[in-house]
Amino acid sequence: MSTTTEPGNPTGSTTGAPVFSVQNLWKVFGPKADQVPADPALAALDPAGLRARTGCTAAVHDVSFDVRKGEVFVVMGLSGSGKSTLVRCLTRLIEPTAGTIAIDGEDVRAMDRTRLRELRRHRAAMVFQHFGLLPHRTVLDNVAYGLEIQGVGKAERRARAKEIVAKVGLDGMEQRRPSQLSGGQRQRVGLARALAVDPQVLLFDEPFSALDPLIRRDMQEEVVRLHREEGRTMVFITHDLSEALKLGDRIALMRDGRVVQLGSPEEIVARPADDYVREFVRDVPREQVLTVRTAMRPGGCGAPDHPGALPPDAVVADAVKAVARSGRAACVVEDGRCLGVVDHARLLGVVAGVESPAEEAV
Ligand SMILES: Nc1ncnc2c1ncn2[C@@H]1O[C@H](COP(=O)(O)OP(=O)(O)OP(=O)(O)O)[C@@H](O)[C@H]1O
Question: ipTM of this predicted complex?
Answer without folding.
Answer: 0.98
